[in-house]
From TrEMBL:
InterPro entries: Cyt_c_biogenesis_Cmc1-like. Pfam families: Cmc1 (PF08583). GO terms for cellular component: mitochondrion. It is found in: Mitochondrion. It comes from Emiliania huxleyi (strain CCMP1516). Keywords: Disulfide bond, Mitochondrion. Residues 1-33 are annotated as: Disordered. This is COX assembly mitochondrial protein. Residues 1-14 have a biased composition (Basic and acidic residues).
Amino acid sequence: MPDAEEKSDARDGRLSGPKSFPNRQAEFERKQHSKRALELCADRVEAYAECATGRTITLPFYCRGVFNELNECLKQHKPAEQN
């Protein structure tokens, strides 16, 4: 069982305030680029969703071509540093 000092240190660590998120800006930008890419490829996203409707086991086989087209479109709109 932890002693009082260990408990105090653990408590101080939990209550020390917000943690620093050094990659917060990079993560925000990545999400914005992904959102924009999905908007630019909306027609292909819709085609894939339509192909996938009602399919379970056959989805990867039946919709492979549509999925590959969607991936190519997303790759074109992905920033260079993510390639």
